[in-house]
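Justification of resources, computational component.

The compute hours requested in this renewal are based largely on the per-chain cost of generating structure records like the one below. Each record pairs the submitted sequence with a full structure-token output. That output is archived, and it is also reused by downstream analysis tasks.
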Amino acid sequence: MSGSGSTRRDRWTRLVPAGYSGVLALLIAGPLLGPGYLLLRDAVSTPRSYLTDSALGLGDAAPRAVPQDALLAALSPIIDGGLIVKAILLVALWAAGYGAAVLTRELLRVSTAPQLVAVTVALWNPYVAERLLQGHWSLLTGYAALPWTALAAYRIRASTIARRTGDTAWRLGAAGAWGALAGCFAAAGLTPTGALLAGCTAVVLVGRRNLLGTLGLLLVASAPWLTATALSGAGSEPSDPAGIAAFAARAEPGLGTLGSLAGLGGIWNGDSVPDSRITLLALIGTVLLLAVVATGIRATASSRAGIRAADAEIASVDHASLRVRRTLLILAVAAVVLPALGSTPWGMSVMEWLVAGVPGAGLLRDTQKYVALAMPAYALCAAAGCRALGVRFAHTPSTANAHRSPAISLTAIAFIALLVLPLFDLAYGVGGELRPVHYPAGWQRVTERIDGPGDIAVLPGGMFRKFPYSGKAPVLDPAPRMLPHDVLQTGELPVRGRTVAGEGAGAREVETLLLHGGSARQLGDLGVGWVLVERTTPGPLGESKTTLAQLDPIYTDQDLTLYRVPAVADHRSESQPAHRTIAYAAHILWAAMLVGGLLLAALLRPRPTA
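The structure output for this chain reads:
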């Protein structure tokens, strides 16, 4: 009977945090369950996208959305692209919360109530709110992978015991842990920044003996964007140093930059924050979050954080847990302090030198992204603090009884309330901002009429739009993901009253030509076969009427007008098919790593350590 009761309790310990994480994910992103598409600032989902050179990262701009765009292009002919984006986002939010629960359960061996606190810390925080409002849905897959990456790294580190004990179960567990790490890297690698987040976490946790294998897996998971950078050369050029000041972390009301970052806030875009974060609730919420985290720092760093065992093997595993927990605490400090230093005048000078002199260093310019690395340690500390306070209030000398004490549950309820209430407007799509939109039918008609060669130029100039159907926030132009040919984009970003230069030299030349009223022949010589005018959004048009008068109108309605350029030069190089083949291979390798790694992790679970 006791064994059956233990099994039921163990199942309950797993199901409740998973269900609670699902509830919070739905509470946050619930409005997206309705029909329509995500179109908010940097987030663009479309009914279908295409495997263009840009989707593979072989275009004029740096491959920042690789392999994200290629995945959507491959799947959207089968499943509506909007549904895919919604599903990935919801799964990512769920996985972030549940991963935090599993991490605390395995490293701290806490009961259900503290795990629910960990779920709340991972999901109900300014980082999630601000990145959702900025439209960084794919970055949140990297965020969601962090607790799972830490767990896989811990299991790999602990599995080295098998080399000394010859324990077959632990050897199988090691294979499963490596599979989990591979799957985490691939999931996080939906964007380059996500890969860096997961890679940093794993590298500092796995231990020196496992470092080479970890780096190898990280390179494979990053193959799509690394290959695209090497083949296109777009990301190999230094970035505009102006991006450092533009994307520096921002101080929120009542908080300095350091305080904002410590509270998991401080995104560079002041418009991408919930309404509660522009009031003194930002200060209150940050103080409460840090207070909850502070209650468990000592317990998390203590060798007595878990249930100690006399068995030598489990004792060694406990030592691995301790090393991982302490390293995560150090990583959290670095994740807060370094971005804060990066926003100081001398810190920005160092970063400007770095991005101007080191190709690819532009990935580091949005330093607030890397505050995500603090989340696993925050979740551990909150769970440990919940248990420690609950045990103290219960006055229960027995560890076993303390784990079942109602005082721990009451403490968890108090902690959850303190975390949720100051950020109340994260609910319902961050105060209703995260909601689906509906594209005019003209987009589909334009797509059907593009039946000839050549790239597509778009007017008005610039990359961001304000459509009547997209809301008050500027949105990234959906044309590159909506249309079947490469859409030329300069990559220039208007940020805080300044313009950060992009890598699209060819697109910039075409845009300049249009705005100055150049000839149709010049457009054709640059490889442009089509010009799309998006009529319901503001933006520069210059003297483009002169150019458009020389083109053949193909389609027009109240929203869009499509023109064909009469004669188009073929700019495809002899190496282009080979480049596409290599890019395909890199993406297939990434997809195989994602599916294979997760399957291996599911089939070869490690033996429990307690």
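The chain has two domains: 2-434+589-603, 454-564. The CA atoms of residues 162 and 170 lie 6 Å apart.
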